[in-house]
Amino acid sequence: LKEENAILRSKINKLQILSETQADKMRKLEKKLEENKIKEEKEAQDLEAMVQHVEQNLQLMTKRAAKAENSAAKLRQENAQLQAELRSSRLENEALQAGQVGLATAKQNAEVALQHLLQVTTSSRASIRQLLSGAESLQLVADLLKSIDRIAEVSEDGQ
């Protein structure tokens, strides 16, 4: 009976040691789980902040692109109008040259129309460059948003 009692005590001691070891492992795993939860929450908040920042930039760039498109459309319209004036001035100039009447006035009108046309052309080119720059910026933001989606997918797969 004493021998059996000793064996049972020995088993109880081993089971207590095993139980304590498993309890330690459990505490360590719970602590690690909590740390991982905190880390994931921080990463999710950081990702959300980045997405909001990108969305704000996208809205701003979209507004800029819309303004540039409107400006380009107005300049194209003005350019067409000035080209019509230039054609009219050239026709008037040709008519005056044929009649040798008021040649200096016609040349002056043609020169003024030409100057207006050159100004509008220069302004149109600048607006078109600005529109292209805005389009490139929008493309960059779209690529960044695609990258964010891939990062989120990789993060989910890694869990």
UniProtKB/TrEMBL annotation:
Keywords: Coiled coil
Coiled-coil features, chain-numbered ranges: 12-99
GO cellular component annotations of the record: centrosome; ciliary basal body; early endosome; midbody; recycling endosome
Domain of life: Eukaryota
InterPro entries xref list: ENTR1
Protein name as annotated: Endosome-associated-trafficking regulator 1
Biological process, per Gene Ontology: positive regulation of cilium assembly; positive regulation of protein localization to cilium; regulation of cytokinesis
Similarity field: Belongs to the ENTR1 family.
